[in-house]
Structures are given as structure tokens and as C-alpha cells.
User: Fold this.
Amino acid sequence: MALRVYNTLTQTKVPFEPVVPGKVGMYVCGPTVYSPSHIGHMVGPVIFDTIKRYLVYLGLEVTWVVNITDVDDKLIIQAQKDGTTVHDLAERVTRDYLDCLRALGVDGIDQMPRATEHIAEIVAMNKGLIAKGYAYESAGDVYFDVTKAAEYGKLSHRDPEELLAGARIEPSSIKRHPGDFALWKSSKPGEPAWESPWGPGRPGWHIECSAMSMKFLGERFDIHGGGLDLVFPHHENELVQSESFTGVPFANYWMHNGLLTKDGRKISKSDPGTIVLMSDLLKAHAPDTIRALLLSSHYRRPIDFGPNRLAEIGRGLRTFERAFERYAERTGRSFYTLVAAPRREPFEPGESPMLREIAEHRQLFLDAMDDDFNTGGAMGELFEIVHVLNRFTDAGQAISEGEYQAGMTVLKELAGLLGLFTSPAERAAPVRDALVGPLLDLLLELRNRLRKDKNFALADEVRQRLAALGVTIEDRPDGSRWRVDTEP
Ligand SMILES: [Zn+2]
Assistant:
């Protein structure tokens, strides 16, 4: 395989070889659901969604897991402030997160496990780590003893001695070493709690990801992803506790995306000017513009986000829309109904000068993606292709309808790998959704109550009448969803 990926563990770019030939397991750390999604929450999902699209295009069968941390100190504090329960807060914020993913075309996630639904697996890991001497119980908490694992620090490339010295010293004597981290935390009265051999408590953050990734992907899997800010301590701790527990290597490739900045400033809750809520952003900008911005540089670099950059990207995407309009005018066909090859295959341009130029840029696009998923480079080639198409379809050029269609189909194929221009109206007309979305959410909620009350006849009628209006309701194990079907 020509694909090479940068591995944080080895700090080198290496050929990509799956643990099981033909299959890929990928785990990406998801959100702690205590506040509505801002643009920073979307960076990882959009990047790893694009990575999955490319791996599938290479013929690999990919299972992608993103967890939801639905119990944590931040949730407890926020729920108290809002006068609600941790559960209800988590449900509300998770729904907002899923809406944002859907809007941005992040549709490749196969499993979204919630921490509170995996307490048994987490308790079992705690027990195993204690039995092997890597962890200890203290005052109802369980801690990982960082001095017991010789390789602690190998992901973040820090000296274990330095890690111990640099650890935040908490005003407590319950830990053996300041760098020891919590695997299980005892609960105070009124806080969410589960029974455990160490008394009522809740999981530590790091162990959730170890337990849930292994449950869905096995002890050893291919890609573990997340933002650069998670390398230490979160991923370092996940890695050390997982390998201590299983005795085998955990994830093969650790991939970290660069962080978002807003007009050059780090995104931070303590700098409110940097927090841009997705719900606000989606009212004002087409989702493709937001997605294209997040993919416009190499994923390991910082991404700068701001009004000027958004406007620039939006103008760039108009070039494509004009090309689609021109194609529709000339041929009576829609770009969106073109069917592109779902897998990577050679493209034969024949004798057509236009298709030969397009074939060259297509190759450069694929080379960029093979080089550690350089989406910024790939997007540059997409612009080259649309310029070639525009040049050759200007008045006076003699190209056949077959050539025209073949060229546009290459554009469809490559844009689809980036998750761009996948549907015409739904993702390009966000303003309408400001009212329609909440109304449909309300209808869905009422219909769910009907189903709970076993009034299936009326619930079915609601579904059928919405279907007649072009709204599809899908009942899935993790809840019901609606979708507005748009005419091609
Ligand atoms: Zn994690």
C-alpha cells in the first residue's frame, strides 16, 4: 500500500499496514458532553471522517468508534448550575453534537459508546490492573501507579522522571506518587455513582477510552486519534494502562490533529471571543464551507478560523457551484446524480486533452492523500481540476458530452473523498433549518412518547405523513432520526 501515515509513537511517517489484512479499527476520543458544540469540537470528527472515506476508497473495511464521555466533574458542575441532572444534560448536549456531525457530513461513525453504559467493563479493568500490581485502591479511589510501568512516557516522548516532577501536586496524601492518575473516583453524596468493590464511585476519564476501544476493536487495533492536546496526559495514560492490562501493544498508529485557533488565538473557555458555537455558525454559513475550511491545510498543522478565512473559502467553493450550474445548463444533468467509482481504480483518459490534464491532477490528489492524508494539498488539486473543466468548456472548445461527463465524474469522485458537494440543497441551505430542525425534533419527541405509550398506530401515521412531505424517520437502536429528502 502506498499510504504512509505519521505516527506520534515513533515520530516518523511510516507505511500503513493494518493488524488484520483488509480491516481497520479506528478509535477517536469524543466529547465530554457538558456544553453545546463549538467549532473546535468538529475538527477531529471532520478529519477522521475524511480519513475513513479514504481508507474505504482504498478497499479497507473500517470500523470507526467515537466515545461520549457522559459522566465527569465538568458535567456534575454544569448540571448543578443548570438545575438539571447529569443524565439530562448529557442527553441534550449529545443530541446537539450529533446534529452538528450530521450537518457537516460526518456520517462514517460506526459506534458511539457512552461511558455510563460500560461501567462493568471499566470495573473489570480496574480489578485486573490491581491484581497485576499496576494499580492500588486508596480511600475509595483507584490509582494507576506510574512507577510500575517502565515505558510510561513513550507516546509523549517525555522522561518519566520529568513527568513525575512536573505532575500537579494535589493537596492530598491518598496517592503514592504525585503523577499517579485516577482509574476510579469515589462519589460524594448526590453525585452519580455506581457500585464497585471500592464503594460507590464513577470511572476516571482515561480508563473509559481504554475499556470502550478494546470492547469494540479488540485489545490491539490500528488507529487511535484525537487532538494534539490529548497526547499527554490522556493518551499516554490510556496507552500505559491498556498495555499493562493486556500485555500486548495497544494501538499501532497514534494520529493527532492540530488544534484550531481563532484569528490566531488559542480556543479557550477563558477567552470567550474564541468560542464559536456550531449552532450559530450553521445559521450563517453553508456546511460545505465549514468542512472545507477544516480540511484546507494538513491535519497536523494548526487551523486558523475566522471570518476572513471563511469568506475566502466560501468564495472558492462558488467556483465549483458555477461549474455544476454550467454542467446542468449544457447537458440537462445534475452533478449530484453522477455516479463515481467507490474504490480506487486507474483512470483512463484516452486521447482527450482535457481528460489527460484531469488525470494528472487526479494522480496528484491521490498522491497528496497517500502522503499522510494531506487534505490541503488534495483540495488544491480539486481546484486545478475545476479550472481545467471551466477552461475546456468555455465557448469555442469542442468537447464531447462523454468527455464532459467523465471529467465531472472525476470531480465527484474526489470531492466525495473529502465529503464535499455530496448533496445539493440540504447542506447548502442551512438558514431554513433554523426553524425546520427544532420543529421536526419536537414532532419526533412527541412520536417517541406515542411509541412509549404503545400507540403504534398513531406513531406510524405520523411517520407516513412526514414521509409524504419528504421527511424520512429512521428508528435506530440509539434513537430516532429525521432526514429531509431533497430532489436530485
Ligand atoms: Zn480518549
